[in-house]
């Protein structure tokens, strides 16, 4: 197993916005991490890449096992060799993820020069090859451009190129398509999927788009208010979701032939980290909630298909 | 801000009327200072007592001083002192201020607090006071003047750079660079400093004008370049006693200071527009 997050808990000051999160990810796999805003998706990404100190947070419990090493125990200077070289992050907003005063080529080159020790010429050759591979037309010309001269979709591909340049084993993509056009979104997701199959990368895809998840992911971890609701292989998850929250998320995807106005959201809001409800954190919005849900935190159960669900009253009948 | 971008901005500034006129004057002063030895037949330090107090004429365009030395020659050589002292000391000040401000803004913590206290302290005194104290400690002369000017303006550049760095530090591309394995020094040198350069450079340009005045002031008090080396300030100082007998002795170096400082300010103004900093500030 390349990445194995075990019982991860993140603290920022006095609050614990993410607790007891576990999932695994192997080479050649795509894991979708889904949930509404504020459910702890980006925090998970920062925990895996060791960037929590940037926002004043830290890993309070659990482990982030990467290729046999617990990253959560490593000090900053021993973590740096992993970043970019083994684990690369594709950030949320491509519009601001590139340095505005540096040429595109220089920004991508530096990855190969820094991590693979290539000289300027070899690095540029790799960059051009990589950009071409990501279907950027006239890659040589683009290398001489500044970020403001490119479109959003192009910029996101450049950001992905930077992440790929040092041939990492794991890519963490934090909502890589949120800021983009729908048409461009599909392209980017498609390219990411291809790269994973081709190069045997592991991809942790953070998104709130269940459509994207259904399209490319192999397995899914559904987060709600800083806790894991359900993690399953993608097929069974969509066929028979066990957690009521997963069901609600799936019901939010528009489908062909739906009657006008029948698309339902989930009533209520994601609770703030300052005021998580007692018991199951989803209970105030859950149609199946009862007194037990208000009082006790549901235990995680392993399903026959290897998935994990955390609910007192899961759907799917045979669990009570 | 790349070097090419900076040069482009200077080019754009020069194409505006304001930038062209002020740029022309500055070029004139700089060239005059550099080529002073070939431009005039006189020496700045050879006395010619029979010709003392000569009014402006064809032989002496700006007249002569109390020792019969040609004033134009002394104003040109004075430009050497004034310009080199102010440009050098402001350069040192800008460089040091950027290093201090960048480190304070990026690393924060105790170092940031120490730098901030230093900046606040120096900013609570007028620059001239700080300069006078430093010259008193180091001793009058060119070295003392340069150190005094560099320290007097240090706070300004430190504070400006620190603010710039703090604003840029939270940009996504900094987080991205860090997540892709860049060291702090790399992020600082390659991302933060280039992105905060433009406003600091303009501030440095404008401060150079102030520095010329400060240098002239120290010279006027006899604390700057020592005789016989001419400086605009010391020339005005010796002329002030002879204001009614030979007004040209104080008027011409005074004009040199005034016009040069105005030209620097106008050019800085044109540069701000060319760099588009004001537009960016308005948007922010």
Summarize the helices and strands and which ones pair or pack.
The complex is a heterodimer of chains A (320) and B (284).
Chain A: E1 3-12, E2 15-25, E3 30-34, H1 41-49, E4 57-66, E5 69-70, H2 76-79, E6 87-90, H3 104-115, H4 120-133, H5 139-143, H6 152-164, E7 170-174, H7 182-199, E8 202-207, H8 210-216, E9 219-224, E10 227-233, H9 234-239, H10 244-251, H11 291-295, E11 300-302, E12 308-310
Parallel strand pairs in A: 3-8, 3-9, 6-7, 7-8
Antiparallel strand pairs in A: 1-2, 1-4, 4-5, 9-10, 10-12, 11-12
Helix pairs in contact in A: 3-4, 3-6, 6-7
Chain B: H1 3-14, H2 17-34, H3 36-39, H4 71-107, H5 109-123, H6 127-138, H7 142-169, H8 172-179, H9 184-220, H10 232-240, H11 248-275, H12 277-283
Helix pairs in contact in B: 1-11, 2-4, 2-11, 4-5, 4-7, 4-9, 4-11, 5-7, 6-7, 7-9, 8-9, 9-10, 9-11, 10-11
Describe it.
The complex is a heterodimer of chains A (about 325) and B (about 280). In chain A, about 30% of the residues lie in helices and about 20% in strands. With about 325 residues, chain A is α/β, with parallel strands linked by helices. Chain A is globular, with a radius of gyration of 20 Å. In chain A, α3 (about 105-115) crosses α4 (about 120-135) and α6 (about 150-165) runs parallel beside α7. Chain A is built from eleven helices and twelve strands. Chain A has a domain at about 245-255 and about 260-320. In chain A, the strands form two sheets. In chain A, strands 6-7-8-3-9-10-12-11 form an eight-stranded mixed sheet, with helices on both faces. Chain A has a four-stranded antiparallel sheet with strand order 2-1-4-5, with helices on one face. The mean pLDDT of chain A is about 90. Chain A has helices spanning about 40-50, 75-80, 105-115, 120-135, 140-145, 150-165, 180-200, 210-215, 235-240, 245-250, 290-295, and strands spanning about 5-10, 15-25, 30-35, 55-65, 70, 85-90, 170-175, 200-205, 220-225, 225-235, 300, 310. Chain B has a single domain (about 5-40, about 65-285), classed as MetI-like fold (Orthogonal Bundle), CATH 1.10.3720. By secondary structure, chain B is mainly α. Chain B is elongated. The mean pLDDT of chain B is about 85. The chains are: A alpha/beta (about 325), B mainly alpha (about 280). Chains A and B meet through α3 and α6 of A and α8 and α9 of B.
């Amino acid at each position: 197993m390349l990445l194995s997050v075990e019982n991860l808990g993140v603290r920022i000051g006095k609050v614990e916005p993410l607790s007891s999160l576990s999932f695994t990810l192997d080479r050649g796999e795509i894991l979708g991490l889904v949930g509404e805003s504020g459910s702890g998706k980006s925090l998970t990404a920062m925990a895996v890449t060791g960037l929590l100190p940037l926002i004043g947070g830290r890993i309070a419990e659990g482990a982030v096992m990467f290729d046999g090493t617990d990253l959560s125990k490593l000090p900053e200077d021993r973590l740096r060799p992993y970043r970019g070289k083994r684990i690369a992050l594709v950030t949320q907003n491509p519009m601001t993820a590139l340095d505005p005063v540096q040429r595109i080529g220089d920004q991508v080159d530096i990855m190969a020069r820094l991590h693979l020790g290539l000289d300027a010429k070899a690095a540029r050759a790799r960059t051009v090859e990589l950009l071409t591979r990501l279907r950027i037309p006239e890659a040589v010309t683009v290398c001489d451009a500044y970020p403001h001269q490119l479109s959003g979709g192009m910029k996101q591909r450049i950001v992905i190129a930077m992440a790929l340049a040092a041939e990492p084993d794991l890519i963490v993509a934090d909502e890589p398509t949120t800021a983009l056009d729908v048409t461009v979104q599909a392209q980017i997701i498609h390219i990411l999927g291809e790269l994973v199959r081709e190069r045997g990368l592991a991809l942790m895809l953070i998104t709130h788009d269940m459509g994207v998840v259904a399209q490319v992911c192999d397995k899914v971890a559904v987060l709600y208010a800083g806790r894991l609701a359900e993690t399953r292989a993608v097929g069974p998850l969509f066929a028979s979701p066990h957690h009521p929250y997963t069901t609600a998320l799936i019901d939010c995807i528009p489908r062909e032939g739906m009657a006008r106005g029948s698309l339902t959201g989930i009533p209520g809001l994601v609770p703030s980290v300052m005021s998580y409800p007692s018991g199951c954190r989803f209970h105030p919005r859950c149609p199946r909630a009862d007194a037990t849900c208000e009082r006790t935190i549901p235990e995680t159960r392993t399903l026959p298909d290897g998935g994990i669900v955390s609910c007192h009253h899961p759907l799917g009948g045979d669990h009570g | 801000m790349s070097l090419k971008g900076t040069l482009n901005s200077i080019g754009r500034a020069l194409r505006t009327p304001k930038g062209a006129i002020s740029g022309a004057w500055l070029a004139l002063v700089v060239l005059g200072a550099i080529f002073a030895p070939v431009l005039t037949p006189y020496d700045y330090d050879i006395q010619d007592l029979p010709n003392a107090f000569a009014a402006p004429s064809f032989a002496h365009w700006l007249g002569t001083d109390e020792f019969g030395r040609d004033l134009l020659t002394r104003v040109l050589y004075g430009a050497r002192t004034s310009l080199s002292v102010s440009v050098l000391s402001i350069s040192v000040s800008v460089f040091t201020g950027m290093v201090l401000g960048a480190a304070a803004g990026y690393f924060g913590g105790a170092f940031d607090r120490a730098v901030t206290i230093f900046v606040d302290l120096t900013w609570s005194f007028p620059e001239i006071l700080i300069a006078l104290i430093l010259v008193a400690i180091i001793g009058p002369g060119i070295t003392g003047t340069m150190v005094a000017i560099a320290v007097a303006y240090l706070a300004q550049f430190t504070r400006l750079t620190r603010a710039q760095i703090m604003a840029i530090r939270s940009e996504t591309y900094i987080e991205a660079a860090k997540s892709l394995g860049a060291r702090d020094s790399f992020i600082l040198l390659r991302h933060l400093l280039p992105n905060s350069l433009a406003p600091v450079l303009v501030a440095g340009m404008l401060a150079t004008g102030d520095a010329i005045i400060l240098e002239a002031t120290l010279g006027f008090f006899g604390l700057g370049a020592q005789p016989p080396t001419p400086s605009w300030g010391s020339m005005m100082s010796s002329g002030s006693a002879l204001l009614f007998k030979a007004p040209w002795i104080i008027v011409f170096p005074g004009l040199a200071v005034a016009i040069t400082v105005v030209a620097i300010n106008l050019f800085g103004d044109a540069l701000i527009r060319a760099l588009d900093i004001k537009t960016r500030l308005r948007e922010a």
